[in-house]
Amino acid sequence: LSTQLPLRLTVIDGRANQRALIPNADNIEVMGMDSAEEAAARVSSGSAALVMTHSHELDYTLCHALLTQNSAVFVGLIGSRSKANRFRSRLRKDNVPEKSLARLTSPIGSSGPKGKEPGVIALAALSEVLTLNMKSATLDLTPSVQGANITPTAN
Fold first, then answer.
1. Is the alpha carbon torsion for 90, 94, 35, 129 positive or negative?
2. CATH topology of domain 2-150
3. How far apart are CA 2 and CA 101, in angstroms?
4. Chain center to CA of 81
5. Distances in Å between the alpha carbon of 85 and those of 27, 66, 80, 82, 91?
6. Which residues contact 56 (CB under 8 A, 6 or more apart)?
7. Are the C-beta atoms of 76 and 129 separated by less than 8 Å?
8. Do 152 and 52 meet the contact criterion of CB atoms below 8 Å apart?
9. Which of 15, 65, 138, 147 is most exposed, with minimal Cβ within 10 Å?
10. What is the pLDDT of residues 32-82, one digit of tens each?
11. Contact residues for 78 (Cβ-Cβ < 8 A; gap 6+)
């Protein structure tokens, strides 16, 4: 689906078997990662980052890195409202400024189609990012690599 959208995606995943599942497309770049900090550093300033991993701890580490070491305009986190509240509380305890926390949106895609299937969640998250892009002069997802889907959910 994302191959047909007017944006560029960078998929960063430390798992080679998951990277192999991403389709080849002109608007999708796939790369590995050694650490959350490295992944956060690869996200371009002014972009949107979607944190969608197989691990709550990795999710947290990525969110912390994106909110403290990066200037992504939008940091979307997959999960429930209770997970979002736990993360916000923990990020505050770890001295993440409120201004940075304001860039965190969780759960991502909550205004879109409902479902727990990875495809439904991806569609809702992409819809949210595209809507933000259309409403905001600060988020420009084209023509350079601006979106980052960090470690897609795998079932």
1. positive
2. Rossmann fold (3.40.50)
3. 27
4. 16
5. 33, 17, 9, 5, 10
6. 79, 83
7. yes
8. yes
9. 138
10. 888 888 888 888 888 888 888 888 999 999 999 999 987 788 899 988 999
11. 50, 51, 52, 53, 59, 106, 107, 108, 121, 125, 153
pLDDT of residue 154: 35
pLDDT tens sequence across 118-148: 778 888 888 888 887 777 655 555 433 333 4
Segment holding 148, helix H or strand E: strand 147-150
Q: Contact at 8 Å (CB) between 144 and 27?
A: no
Q: Which two tokens stand for residue 141?
A: 């997802």
Secondary structure of residue 31 in the 3-state scheme = strand
The contacts of residue 43 (CB under 8 Å, 6+ apart) are 10, 49, 66, 70, 72, 148, 150
Both tokens of 111, joined, read 């205004």
pLDDT in tens, 74-109: 899 988 999 999 999 999 999 999 999 999 999 888
Cα angle 54-100-37, degrees, rounded to a multiple of 5 = 45
Pairing status of strand 147-150 against strand 28-31: unpaired
